[in-house]
Each structure stands twice: as C-alpha cells, then as structure tokens.
Design brief:
The chain is α/β, with parallel strands linked by helices. The chain contains 30 helices and 30 strands. The strands form 6 sheets. Strands 1, 2, 6, 7, 8, 9 and 20 form a 7-stranded mixed β-sheet that branches. Strand 10 and strand 11 form a beta hairpin. The longest helix has 23 residues. The radius of gyration is 30 Å and the shape is globular. The N and C termini lie far apart (93 Å).
C-alpha cells in the first residue's frame, strides 16, 4: 500500500478512551500541536463497562486529575445522574466520591471538549504501525496509508488492541461494545521489539428497566447534598436517578455451577489474566462456594435510555445460560435483555518496561498509558493519560520530567507500583495501596497538586487563582479557631448537651473541635462570630484540626521516606557487575532500572541484603567516607528492611541475616535482615526493623520470673520493651506476622494509649502489659480453624477495638465489623484504623439487642468475638443472633469460664447454639489465665431474641433446661 503524508504534529495519541482524552488535552494545553486518533469516534471516552466514575481509591484519582488541570472531574460533574460519597462511616482518609454517569452525555461532552480544544485535532483512523528511526518514534501509520509524523507518540489503546470477545462457546475479534478492534497494530509493535501479553476483562448484560420489578429490590439513593468532583464547581445540583440493590441466591448459583463448563473462562478458551478485584459471576460463585448470595446493583445507564447495568454480574457464559441465571434473581424474574454479557481479551505490555514518566524505556519519545499498561478502570487510565501527556510535552520542551511521589498523590502510588512491581493481572488502585492516605485525601487534592499543575503550565490561571483564594480562606479560619475562646460556662453547657465531659478551663474553638463528639457545623452555637466561608473550607478546617496529630505523624513518616527517595542511583549502573547481589535481584534491578534507593527497595525480588550491597557500592562511587564526607546521603543513616524504611539514630551500624555490616559512624547503615517483611517504622527498637536491640530478650522467656510465688513469676516485668514482648509473644503463639503487621500492632497500641489520656479506653498503661493483656490476648485465637476459615467476623462490645483490630491486622483478607454502644470509642477507633491503614475494619454504633434484628446483621457472620464482661448466658443472647448457622462464637472469659458454662447451656441451646468446649489462651507463662468459650451455631435463633435493650442483663435466660 502506498503511504502518503497527512501532516506533522508534536504529539500523536493512539486511542481516545479515558487515557487518550486526558493525554491529548494535557499535551495541547501545554502548547503541543496534538493529534488524537480514535478507531471510531463513537469510542471517544466510551464507558464500555460500568456507567460510573469514582469509587474507593478511584475517586481520589479523579480529584487529582482535576487538581492538575485534567478534564474527567469537570465532565462527570456535568453528566452525573446520581452522586454519593462512599465510606462516610469511616474517617476522611477513605472518603471516596462516586457518581453514576449518563454515559451517552459523558461521551458527547468529552468528545466536544476535544473538538473545541485549541491545538488539538481529533480524527477517526486506525493506527497500524508506529515509525521508529534511530531509536526514537517519528510518527504513526494508518490503515488507509496515511502517515502522520510526530515528535512523540502516546499509545492508549485500551481493550481495543487485539480485542477478542467471548460469549460461551462463541469467540470473535471485536473491540468493546461491538466496536471494531485494532487488529494490525499488535504485530507491528512486536516487530519493534515491544513484548505484548494478554489480559482480559468482562462486562454484564444490559437489561431494560421497564422489565424489572424494582419494588422487590432495595432502593439506593444518592447523597441529599451532592459533592462535586471538580474543585472548579461549588454546587452541581441534585440527583436525578436511583440505583437498586438485590442479591443472587442458591438457585442462581446452582444454574451457574451446572453450566460452568460452558463458560469461556472455565472451558479454557480464555487465556488472558483477569482482574482479581472484579471477577466474573461464575468465578465468584465457584471460588466462594460457601457464600449463599452476592450483592447485585442495578445502575441506570442514562436518562435518555431504558438500559440498566447489572453491576456484579459480568460473565462469559452463553446467552441462554445468562438469561436463566439473571432471571433467577429477585426483581429480574421477567427481565428483557438488550445486550448480553461478555469477556474480552486484549494485548498490553508489562509496565516494568516503562520509566516513571511512562515513557517506554527502549524507544525514545514513545509513551504508554491506560489499559495498555496493564491497569483496569477508567480512572486509572485517565490518570496515566494525563501524566503521559504532561511528560511528552515537557520532554519536547526540554524541561524536567513531572513525577509524583508516593507521598504526593495516588497517581504517584499507582505509577510507582506499575514501574517497580509490574502487573501480573489488571491493576486496580485501592486506598490500601497508599501508605500515606491520611495525607493523600480526596478533599485536599487541590491543596496538594494545583500549584504543581500551574507550574508545569497545565492548570489554568483561573484554577490557580481559585486555589489561592481557598488556601487563604482555610488558613484564616484555622487561625481564627485557634484564637477564639468562648466563655467557660457557655462552652460547658454546649458540651454537656452532647454528653461530653466539661472543660476545666477556657479552651479555644480549635481545642473544642478536636473532641470526637463535636462537629464544625454543630459548634455554631458557641461561635456566633464565624465568617461565611465555603463548605469546602469548613470541611478542611475541621479535618485539619481533628486529625492534626495523626497528620503530623504521617508527615514525619514521609520525611523518613524521602531520605531514601533522595538517594539517587546513576542511570547507567551495571547491576551485572555488582558482586554480592543475588542473580534474581540483578535481573530485577536491570529490568526496572530504579531511580533511587527507595524505589529499588520496592522492587519485587530485591531483599535488604541486596540493597545493602547496592548502597555500599554507591557510597564508593560517590566518594562517601566512613568519617562523613561532602556526598553523605544523610547523617542519621537509613535502614531498609524488605521495603520498609526506618531511621537509625546516629548512623548506628546494623547487621543481620548474613548481610554486610556498615561500620558504626558511617553515613549509611542498612539492615540485611532478610526475614523482615515490609513496612515503615521510626523506632530503632521496632520489632523486625533490622536494628540490633540494646538488650535482646532471653531465649527462655521474657525477663525476670522471680515475682511469682511458684517461681514462674510474671514473665514480663513492668517497663520491659513492648516490641520485644510482642515479638516473643507472637513466636510463642506460633503466629505468622510480618514486620508491617508488627508495626501496625505497635502503632495501634500507641494510638490507644495516647487517646486514653482523654477517653477512658483502658486501665493498662504499661506498654509491656498492654501487649500481653490486649494485643496477645486478642490474637490467642488467630490460628484456630473456625476463624481461619471465616470471611466475615463481628466483634460485639469492642471497646477500644479488642480483639477485632489486632486480628484484622493479621487477617487482612477477612472483613471485621466492630460493634459498640459508645460512639466516642468508635470515633476513636475510626481515627486509629485510618492512621495505620487498615481497610478491612468497619464500625457500627448501636446496641447489640437492636442491631441483631436488622437484616444486614442478623445471622450474617461466620464468627462472633466478644471480650465483654457480661456472664455467658447474657453474652450468648447478645452474640448468637449475629452468627449464621454453622458459625462460631468465641467468648473471651477469665478463670471463671468453666463455672459459667453450665449456667449458660440452656440459653445457648435456646438461641440455636451448642457448647463446643473451652480453650486456653496460651498465655499462662505471661501470668494470665484467660479462657475462650467456643459455641457452635447449629440452627437459627428464634426471631424474638435478643430481647429489648437491657432485658438480657436484667433477666438472663434460665439456666435449667425445661
């Protein structure tokens, strides 16, 4: 075919999905003449799967895209039909905006934004090759023979590249939504040495709303007051649509299992790796066979269509099977389907081949973004597109690259994960991936990033001016709250009305606002002179005051993290020539080419001993000397242990695990303790930190045992090192616990003790005793089979979070619900779990007698835990109604457990349970004789139990069987 020149551009973008749109707009707004190619213009910003933007982690990305000057937030604000802020029951670090979109309008608005952008041409055309000369990309070739020369090219092909759709036994080449695939580009890219692999994703059927029975489902309303995605909008108007909740059932599951062999996924037709966090319905039913139902959300696709999206039911089953199992679901019995569900395989690259700028390492000026990089989701794609467009424009302008760190943005977390760890399956952002999520909140994205976006030339002057005005307003309000002190009597009357303890002396509004019971809006009663400021500034003032202590601690962590990020690795280093580094580590480091010691420490397959050798080599290269020199990395030294970063006071030498030791006094001190697990710690004594403790625990026990009359003594005398006690206790209990988990347990202890000065959370303030009586006692059941097999666990009367939080830290794959009748405690727990990054803990305020009658709680849990002081007959009435038949109750009791068991037998049997025995906590050597009573739930609890609030305590169920 004859090729012909159709023009030249600075930047050419292949693909106009969510990544391609942001890439093209960013490049054009930064002064680059830009071409955006779409295989079909109907595919521009196509919502091929769910008709929504945002969600946990994803909403944070959209806010960051907006803060930098991107388009996604503005478009969803114009086209949403329902808006919700997720995770409101938890702290602000995990609040995440999510909006249902009118998908046709979203496509049209984004397409129009590209069409109207100066310096950008949007064209329909299929790229079949890229032009590479002298190791650099020079342009793109279209199927028609048209050639567009370009100084930089961004590949953002989404799921179109080599797309193949699967519906049962049927398989054919296709892009998403029935659009044409990009069939020729894959082989051309491989011809340029770009290695491709296959991933897959899927989507459910679309039904017609008029055929559904919404009266048989639960309505899911949006927020009463909507929250904009874009910082440029104060208000976006009300919701105009509802979503609906229903569930699969045993009949649905039976249909799926009966036809499993007809699924493309299970027949072996699909070879690509699918997303772990968004599996098909057949995969969910097969993998989680013990679950009797799965949530299904019915989501409207727009106001001008009757189609609805059946969220949670993506599938590759044949159409006849799809019709059968969809119609087995309550509310979908008569469903009429407009489109079947399908799976789609597509080509993508290994992101380890990318630089942190998203430039391909082996071809200059070739950038990659979106699902082509092995990610999933519109938001992840858009964020990468934005960064690829920015860096392409900066490179062509001869300016420094724009790279966001893990401490600066979720975008930085995602890209660092991709380029250092790769993606063995479609990558999805989650709040748990961000170590510093308390700082990286969705509400402060503009405060973190707008100045950066303006400095690189992307954020507009209007946006920058608005940001500066908001920043001044927040700072002024923080200052006013810190200086304003209401009269003591007035303040105490207000606090007593909330059930809070009175003040002993006058306090500022900021000090009063720090109390868990007090909110900014509610404080208006004692703050008559408050100014009229934006709702956003009010929220910022409240968050920054309430979480000031936690934020300061996280900032200190970030400062330690930065020290290793600032230890740069020369680009041309030859890892193959470094003696002392394992072969696997050499290969991984050579492939990833990390830019810093911090990044190198996060590369999978590189352990602390390898980092130790690398740092010593760099010290020699840079002329570092043991007595301190001009090139010293930092005077305190740094300790790296399996991806964790800790500070070693005074450059103290550390060694272990057979690694190399750095002499005391050197600027660099690195742990070679290869057994440590990841995490971040500031304390040189932290368990597993790689630092040699000043006084290691005795191998036979935990200290002096002379205190007890029997010679056994209290194994841990007051004042013993808490981290040593925890390490020994975990070993004694035979629990697998990595360094990151150890540090979270210690951090939780510190948070409880700190707040204990204001709230009565515990009478135990000695840290060693706290570890034994709270942490280890909570973990005593960690290896027991009932809880190891459980998925959902409820902790009744959790108090300060025991035993639920310690168990949740060691069991991140399980969901823990913490129930308590005292809201102050739960507010404290929410702050604790937010600070130490625990995503599998949820709190519920209320009395057990009431909650156990609610459908979401009654007989929904595999295991119920309780350390409450109530006697066993009372505890059984509180707890057994929460447990599903076949589940278990763990009742933590003292030495009197054996006496309580006979008295409780009648109550337990009446409530559908059966005593299964009593187990020792295994902590006798530590001076405590705790027992755990085990009750099996053998049948349903009668509907009348538990009785009304207070009745179980006042009139315990009888102790004699009748």
């Amino acid at each position: 075919m004859q090729h012909y020149n159709m023009g030249s551009y600075d930047v050419a973008v292949i693909g106009a999905g969510h990544a391609g749109c942001e890439a093209g707009l960013a490049a054009a707004r930064m002064g680059m003449k830009t071409l955006v190619l779409s295989i079909q213009l109907e595919a521009v910003a196509l919502m091929a799967c769910n008709p929504s933007i945002g969600g946990a982690g994803k909403g944070q990305l959209v806010r960051e895209i907006d803060a930098l000057g991107g388009e996604m937030g503005l478009i969803i604000d114009r086209t949403f039909i329902q808006s919700r802020m997720l995770n409101r029951a938890k702290g602000p670090a995990v609040h995440s905006p999510r909006a249902q979109a009118d998908k046709a309008r979203y496509h049209a608005e984004m397409k129009h934004a590209l069409e109207m952008q100066p310096g950008l041409d949007l064209k329909q055309g299929e790229a079949v090759d890229i032009i590479v000369e002298d190791g650099a990309v020079r342009g793109v070739v279209l199927r028609t023979g048209a050639v567009y020369s370009a100084k930089a090219v961004i590949i953002a092909t989404g799921t179109f590249l080599g797309g193949r759709v699967f519906i049962g036994e049927s398989s054919y080449e296709s892009g998403p939504g029935g659009l044409a695939p990009a069939a020729a580009l894959s082989s051309a890219l491989e011809g340029h040495g770009i290695r491709l692999r296959r991933f897959k994703t899927g989507t459910p059927a679309r039904a017609l709303a008029q055929s559904l029975h919404f009266d048989r489902m639960q309505e899911q309303l949006g927020d009463e007051r909507t929250t904009p995605f874009s910082f440029m909008n104060d208000e976006i108007g009300p919701n105009t649509a509802s979503c609906w909740l229903t569930y699969t059932n045993e009949g649905t599951h039976a249909i799926i299992m009966r036809n499993l062999a007809r699924s493309s996924l299970y027949s072996g037709m699909i070879k690509g790796r699918g997303p772990r966090y968004c599996p098909s319905i057949e995969d969910k039913v097969n993998r989680f066979a013990d679950k009797d139902r799965h949530q299904i959300f019915i989501e409207p696709e727009g106001l001008s269509t009757d189609e609805v999206y059946i969220q949670g039911m993506s599938t590759s089953m044949p159409e006849d099977v799809q019709h059968e199992f969809y119609r087995s679901i309550r509310g979908l019995e008569d469903a009429v389907f407009a489109r079947p569900g399908y799976s789609i395989e597509y080509d993508c690259i290994d992101p380890l081949a990318l630089k942190s700028t998203l430039e391909y390492k082996y071809i200059n000026n070739l950038f990659c973004a979106g699902q082509f990089n092995g990610t999933s989701g519109y938001e992840e794609a858009a964020a990468q597109g934005l960064m690829a467009g920015i860096n392409a424009a900066l490179k062509l302008s001869g300016r420094a690259p724009f790279i966001l760190g893990r401490d600066e943005a979720y975008i930085g977390v995602m890209i660092d994960d991709l380029v250092t760890k790769g993606a063995s399956e479609p990558y999805r952002i989650m709040t748990s991936r961000a170590e510093y999520r308390l700082v990286l909140r969705q509400d402060n994205a503009h405060l973190r990033l707008t100045e950066k976006g303006w400095a690189i030339g992307l954020a507009s002057q209007q946006r920058h001016d608005r940001y500066l005005a908001a920043k001044r307003e927040i700072e002024a309000e923080l200052d006013r709250l810190a200086k304003t002190k209401p009269e003591l009597g007035e303040a105490n009357a207000f606090l007593c009305g909330l059930g809070a303890a009175p003040l002993q002396k006058r306090a500022s509004l900021a000090e009063i606002l720090r109390r868990p019971e007090v909110g900014y809006e509610g404080m208006a009663a004692i703050d008559p002179g408050r100014p009229d400021i934006s709702r956003h500034s009010k929220a910022q003032a409240e968050i920054q005051i309430k979480y000031a202590g936690y934020i300061a601690k996280q900032q200190a962590q970030i400062e330690r993290f930065k020290k290793t990020e600032e230890m740069k690795i020369p680009a041309g280093i030859d890892y193959a020539q470094l003696d002392g580094i394992r072969i696997e580590a050499r290969e991984k480091l050579s492939a990833v080419r990390p830019g810093s010691i911090g990044q190198a420490s996060r590369v999978a397959g590189v352990n602390p001993a390898d980092i130790n050798v690398l740092m010593i080599h760099l010290a020699k290269m840079q002329g570092m000397k043991a007595d301190g020199g001009p090139h010293a990395a930092n005077s305190s030294g740094a300790a790296i242990a399996a991806g964790g970063i800790g500070e070693v006071p005074g450059g103290t030498a550390v060694s272990g695990g057979g690694g190399l030791a750095v002499p005391a006094g050197s600027e660099i001190a690195v742990s070679a303790a290869s057994g440590a697990a990841g995490g971040i710690g500031a304390d040189a004594g932290s368990a597993g930190s790689g630092v040699v403790p000043s006084s290691p625990p005795a191998k036979s026990g935990m200290g002096d045992t002379s205190g007890r009359p029997d010679g056994g003594g209290l194994a841990v005398p007051a004042g013993s090192r808490a981290d040593d006690v925890l390490a020994q206790g975990i070993a004694d209990l035979g629990i697998a616990c990595g360094r990151a988990q150890t540090e979270k347990l210690l951090a939780y202890m510190e948070q409880v003790l700190e707040l204990n000065r204001h709230l009565n959370l515990t009478s135990i303030t000695d840290r060693a005793q706290f570890i034994i009586k709270h942490i280890l006692d909570s973990l005593a059941c960690c290896n027991w089979p009932e809880i190891k097999e459980a998925e959902r666990v409820v902790d009744i009367g959790t108090g300060a979070g025991f035993p639920g939080v310690p168990l949740a830290i060691l069991m991140p794959q399980k969901s823990f619900i913490l129930v308590d009748s005292l809201g102050k405690r739960l507010n404290a727990i929410n702050g604790f779990i937010e600070y130490i990054n625990i995503d599998n803990v949820f709190t519920k305020h209320g009395r057990a007698e009431s909650l156990a009658h609610q459908a979401d709680f009654r007989e929904r849990f595999d295991v119920c835990l309780s350390r409450a002081v109530s006697e066993l007959p009372v505890l059984a009435e509180y707890c057994l109604p929460f447990i599903k038949p076949g589940g278990w109750l763990y009742a933590y009791k003292g030495e009197a457990a054996s006496q309580e068991m006979p008295k409780a037998e009648y109550a337990i049997n009446l409530l559908g349970g059966q005593l299964a025995g009593i187990r020792d906590s295994g902590l006798k050597k530590y001076g405590i004789e705790h027992k755990i009573v085990i009750v099996e739930k053998t049948g349903p609890t009668p509907a009348r139990y538990p009785r009304q609030a207070g009745k179980p305590e006042k009139a315990p169920l009888g102790t004699v069987k009748k």
